[in-house]
Amino acid sequence: MDNPGAFTLGDFQIGAAAQQNGTPVCDFEGMEAVSLQVRLSSAAGGTSINVYIQTSLDQGQCWFDVACVGFTTSPGVQALNLSGLDKSAPVTPSNLALTPGTILDGPFGDRLQAIVVSTGTYTGSPLVSVRGVAR
Question: Domain total for the chain?
Fold first, then answer.
């Protein structure tokens, strides 16, 4: 793999309802697995926050979901592991459509990104942080 080790998919300040796209992290050719930690700090108000982890098989032309982590109004941490070695039946790639708590093991491209979609208005300056380790 070209770029093993730790990386950051972004820190996202949450306020009014919005979609925030993180900066893609590239050079993951040959990645077989990735462990991710998604943290929400000091949440108050609001309704829901969904954090989508996406990959691309065509160098960023088309992105699709490989995981979705969901939060409501409580701070917390969720950890997940994605495997690129698992085979699965063909699926139609989705964009911001996975249900929170869903992980799709299987295809990995050479890049990852996080997208945060919040509903409702959060107060207290909550922060969503997404960190990972690629192998």
Answer: 1
pTM: 0.94
Handedness of CA 106, 109, 113, 116 (dihedral sign): negative
Which residue range forms the structural domain that includes residue 70?
Answer: 5-134
Task: Give Cα 78 distance to the centre of its chain.
Answer: 11
- pLDDT (tens digit per residue) in 40-72: 998 889 999 999 999 999 999 999 999 999 999
The DSSP string of 6-18 is EEEEEEEE--SSE
- In the chain the first and final C-alpha atoms are separated, in Å, by 7
Amino acid residing at 65: D
CATH of the domain at 123: 2.60.120.380
